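TA notes, week 10

Several of you asked for a full example with nothing omitted. So below is the full record: structure tokens for the whole chain, then the designed sequence directly under it. When grading your own attempts, check the secondary structure regions first.
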């Protein structure tokens, strides 16, 4: 399984609009591609929030081929929409991880 993690720090002034847009528009649009099996929206804790709030959005894809399909056919458009809507109001970085072990805690 592949974990695609997008970490975003959004300016305080844009935060409420951004969070609603992520929940109601952007994340559903990503999931509508049919290439992710699960997702999580997480707020980072214990970090300085004086200039923005940081979130990690995690999308789970069954394999690298499926993720590559997302990257080639959907990511440019979806990332462009985000960039145009929140230009100069956020910083973001993306990481890609292979999930080696899954399970519930004991």
């Amino acid at each position: 399984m592949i974990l695609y993690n997008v970490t975003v720090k959004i300016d305080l002034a844009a935060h409420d609009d951004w969070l609603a847009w992520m929940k109601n528009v952007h994340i559903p649009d990503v999931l509508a591609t049919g290439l992710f099996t699960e997702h999580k929206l997480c707020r980072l804790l214990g970090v300085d929030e004086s200039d923005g709030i940081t979130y990690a959005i995690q999308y789970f894809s069954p394999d690298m081929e499926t993720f590559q399909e997302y990257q080639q056919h959907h990511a440019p458009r979806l990332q462009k929409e985000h960039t145009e809507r929140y230009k100069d109001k956020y910083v973001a970085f993306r990481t890609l991880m292979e999930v080696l072990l899954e399970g519930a805690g004991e």
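The chain has one domain: 2-98. Use that as a sanity check on your answer.
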